[in-house]
Design a protein that fits this description.
Layout (H helix, E strand, L loop, with lengths): L9 E2 L3 H20 L6 H24 L13 H13 L11 H27 L10 H4 L3 H31 L5 H7 L1 E2 L10 H23 L15 H4 L1 H7 L13 H9 L16 H13 L8 H9 L12 H6 L19 H4 L18
Antiparallel strand pairs: 1-2
Helix pairs in contact: 1-2, 2-4, 2-8, 4-6, 11-12
The chain binds heme C (2 copies).
The site of one heme C (HEC) has 23 residues, from helix 13 and helix 15.
Amino acid sequence: MLKNKKENQVYVWPLCTRFVHWLIALSFTTAFILSFFEHRLNYHVGVGIIFGLMLSYRIIWGFIGPKYATFNTFKLNLSQLKYYFVEKIQNRYRKIPAGHNPASSWYTLIVLFVGAIIVITGMLLYGIQEGRGYLSILNENYHKFSSVLLDIHIYASYTLLVWVIIHISGVLVEQFYHKTHMVNAMITGYKQTDGEDAQLCTPKNIVSFVIIALSLWVFYVIAFDTQSPFVKSKFPEINFKEESPVFYNKCSKCHKIYPPYLLPQKSWLRIMDGLDNHFGEKITDQNISKENQIEISRYLIQNSSEHSTREAALRITESTLEERPIAITKTQYWRDTHKDIPLSAYEDKKIKDKSNCFACHKDIEKGNLEDRDILYRH
Ligand code: HEC
Ligand code: HEC
């Protein structure tokens, strides 16, 4: 048996294990907080990828990692788990094992399992719902699963949050009640108990830090490089002037062009049928000839929300099944997504009206409604 580096202490968690532990904790917390800021989706996804890569790494570590980290040292017997809690209550100053105790063995497995669900649904959502990155090829055929995926993603994240809080409470009980210095162990790597030091050969150490560096690089690319294939949108900018000069010329006289995918066919027909009283304006055959009106209608119908797999289009189609709104701002979806904007926002001279999408959504004139391009902050 090799001699331990420190007397009465065991080196349980090598530097890379500790690094990965804290990176998992930090990336999950950050991604959770960022999820409340829609326009920070790129950071949320970038941090989520760090979380995913670190989880994968931890799973591989479970097979080839150093002593105490491998799954075969996990104590998963339920009677061991029960005994762990009985002893916890009966014996305040009990001896702790060098590696994982039964509770932390189960804890780790569940984190890996729930974490994997979060990462997989997150990656699918990014491709299927947002139409971004490599998985955007799935958008076309699987867009109807985006709501289910989102529900799973959210429920799993809250489950993990509760799970993490239980973990932190358990560790604090160890630290302050049982006085086992559990927190210090994940910082210094040493536990005060019996056992052999964990050893980690240099190649594995190097590979570990290369993977950590790789995950930071991927984060950088996703968060800051808008053109990288990891984040590139499958939806190109729309040049309305080129696609339909008549629509562009006739319908951008009084306001800028509203992208046709933001209303269903039936709404466009209602708008085109009611031009003689268009939101208080009288638009006649003199303003837009009958021929042009027919051409515009055709273009609008061909490009209505039913014909698009963009997230907003899908939501608008869903939310207008029962009704035939005459304006985007009258759809339930629009009202829901904008309900947090205070009325005072419209007192701003640059915004003025809720129909003035263009003041708050940069690039909506090019057909793009990106979360990160929202100019207005409340
Ligand atoms: C004579 C001026 C004028 C022309 C031309 C015009 N609009 Fe409008 N439109 C308005 C006004 C005024 C509103 C009310 C909202 C606003 O103040 O921007 C409006 C609102 C809309 C809205 C609702 C926006 C919302 O709040 O969700 C849509 C959709 C729309 N117009 C489509 C069209 C289309 C399609 C054409 C071309 C056929 C067109 N408009 C041409 C004046 C015009
Ligand atoms: C006062 C500024 C403002 C105006 C005007 C405005 N929006 Fe928004 N819009 C926002 C903000 C802010 C959000 C993000 C809401 C949130 O997630 O909290 C948003 C969200 C959205 C979303 C959802 C995007 C997503 O991925 O969640 C769509 C679609 C949208 N707006 C379309 C429109 C359209 C179309 C118009 C014009 C008819 C419009 N908005 C007018 C500020 C505005």
